[in-house]
Amino acid sequence: MTTTISEVIVTADNPEWLINFTRQLVEERWCACGQHTNPIRSIYRWDGAIQDETEIRVALHTRRALVPALIDRIKKDHPYDVASIIALPIEDANPNYVDWVEAETREAE
User: Fold this and answer.
1) How far apart are CA 37 and CA 30, in angstroms?
2) What is the sign of the dihedral through the CA atoms of 69, 75, 78 and 83?
3) How far apart are CA 53 and CA 61, in angstroms?
4) What is the CATH T-level fold of the domain 5-104, as seen in this structure?
5) Number of C-alpha atoms within 13 angstroms, CB side, residue 59?
6) What is the Cα 89 distance to its own chain's centre?
7) pLDDT band at residue 109, thresholds of 50, 70 and 90?
8) DSSP state at residue 107
9) How far apart are CA 76 and CA 1, in angstroms?
10) CB 66 within 8 A of CB 30
């Protein structure tokens, strides 16, 4: 059974920026929580060259209905030209956790 929540994954190269930004998103009720993984190693092609960088990653838990607006919100403030923002639907979860995420996030507009 598909739930009403999603996980939105975002990476950045500045741990303090992403931690502070996550706190702001929680305060503004865009997401119920953000779970950080630090460090991660990202290998990718950018401007024709292979990059090998250390980054931080956050998994934001939010209402599925908020995902499009949340992606726009992240893109607006993210320091990267092309931010890695990936949203995954949560297919199954603890019903109490789903209720908590919904209670801690804003209604979709």
Assistant:
1) 20
2) positive
3) 25
4) Alpha-Beta Plaits (3.30.70)
5) 10
6) 12
7) confident
8) P
9) 33
10) yes
CB 108 within 8 A of CB 41: no
List the one residue out of 77, 82, 76, 33 whose CA is nearest residue 58: 33
Give the chain's mean pLDDT.
Answer: 97
Burial class from Cβ neighbours inside 10 Å (0-12, 13-18, 19+) for residue 61 reads: buried
What region does 24 belong to: left with phi over 0, alpha with psi -120 to 50, or beta? Answer: alpha
User: Phi and psi (nearest 5°) for 61?
Assistant: -105, 125
Tokens of 49: 């060259």
In the structure, how many helices (H) and strands (E) does the chain have? 3, 4
Phi and psi torsions of 27, nearest 5°: -60, -40
